[in-house]
């Protein structure tokens, strides 16, 4: 399902960002694109609305793993009242942070796959957002000798990569390999 009125949603995001940038004293500019063309690094994300920030205060948005950028994005998603399974329809980025994180997750998924094949033991990623977990699942979807599963709850959910037919020893939890 797509956002019913993308232009109205983009205008609401613009109004929100005007207030945040002005009242926060941030030296930032942003561009909101409805139905952006797919870039190579966005092949697993197909946002209907893309918001890109630039400016002298860009590093502030990206500190602590992009915490402020993700927080502003979260506010916009809440304002639009999008259900959790539709959060990927709106994407905020700054200085290609999202594209670099996607590539980092793809590489980490490849390393985890190699490690699981070699050790025949599960590999557990650190907790991550639902979007990031989705990227790991997608990166490994064609590896038929492996399976992935999200485990944990809330903010502590993480991905585990298992050998295809892995069965834990009776009464023994899987080894944590972070």
Brief synopsis:
This protein is α+β, with helices and mostly antiparallel strands.
Can you walk through the features of this model?
The protein is an alpha+beta fold. It is 42% helix and 17% strand. The strands form two sheets. Strands 1-2-3 form a three-stranded mixed beta sheet. Strands 4-6-5 form a three-stranded antiparallel beta sheet. Helix 2 links the parallel strand 2 and strand 3. The protein is elongated, with a radius of gyration of 19 Å. The model has no long low-confidence stretch (mean pLDDT 87).
Helix/strand-derived category reads alpha+beta
Number of strands: 6
CATH architecture of the largest domain: 2-Layer Sandwich
In percent, how much strand structure appears in the residues? 15-25%
CATH class membership of the largest domain? Alpha Beta
Write the topology of this structure.
Elements: H1 6-23, E1 29-34, E2 49-54, H2 58-80, E3 90-94, H3 97-119, E4 123-124, H4 130-139, E5 146-151, E6 158-163
Parallel strand pairs: 2-3
Antiparallel strand pairs: 1-2, 4-6, 5-6
Helix pairs in contact: 1-2, 3-4
